[in-house]
Write a structure and sequence with these properties.
With 166 residues, the protein is an alpha+beta fold. It is built from 5 helices and 3 strands, in the order H-E-E-H-H-E-H-H. It has a 3-stranded mixed β-sheet, sandwiched between helices. Helix 1 packs across helix 3. The longest helix is centred in the last third of the chain and has 25 residues.
Length: 166
């Protein structure tokens, strides 16, 4: 049995090995936008539960799951080379629902904010936050000042000869 400190160190090492191996080491087109979110290693170091997430539909999620299962041998050999323990933990891939839940909650909160703003007659941005016309006009003034400064800097950098190419 390994102590907790060693398990945490090995989990981090496995994560640092798998993330680039999945992103760059595999040429499978089904593996797009995959993120390894967490590694949980069993106390006996026999099983490494790899939590992953991806953007897209349920079909994309299914394709990604199959691609990860197919690449298990390659990924497990990469982990074996990195951690150098007597035995290599068996990789088990599990979809992490956390990102999907966060997106769903964020969408619901944005919808609620837009509904409340519509009832109160307040204009909101795409995030459901109220738009303050005074702040927006200040932003435009600052942008104008910034563009004037940029124009002055470009004019100072131009050659003195008006016939010279710009």
């Amino acid at each position: 049995m390994a102590n907790d400190r060693r398990i945490k160190r090995l989990e981090m090492l496995i994560l640092q090995t798998l993330a680039p191996a999945i992103a760059h080491g595999l040429a499978d087109p089904r593996l797009s936008m995959v993120t390894v979110t967490r590694i949980r290693l069993s106390k006996d170091l026999g099983i490494a539960r790899v939590n992953w997430s991806c953007l897209g539909t349920d079909g994309d999620r299914s394709k990604t799951s199959h691609a990860l299962e197919k690449a298990r041998g390659y990924l497990q050999s990469a982990v074996a080379a990195a951690i150098r323990t007597r035995t290599t933990p068996r990789l088990e891939f599990h979809f992490d629902e956390g990102l999907a839940h966060a997106v769903r909650v964020n969408t619901i909160l944005g919808d609620l904010a837009r509904e409340r703003a519509a009832r109160e007659g307040v204009e909101v941005n795409e995030f459901g936050e109220p738009i303050d016309p005074e702040v927006e006009s200040e932003d435009q003034d600052t942008a104008t000042e910034g563009s004037e400064l940029a124009d002055a800097a470009r004019a100072a950098a131009r050659p003195a000869d008006p016939e010279a190419p710009r």
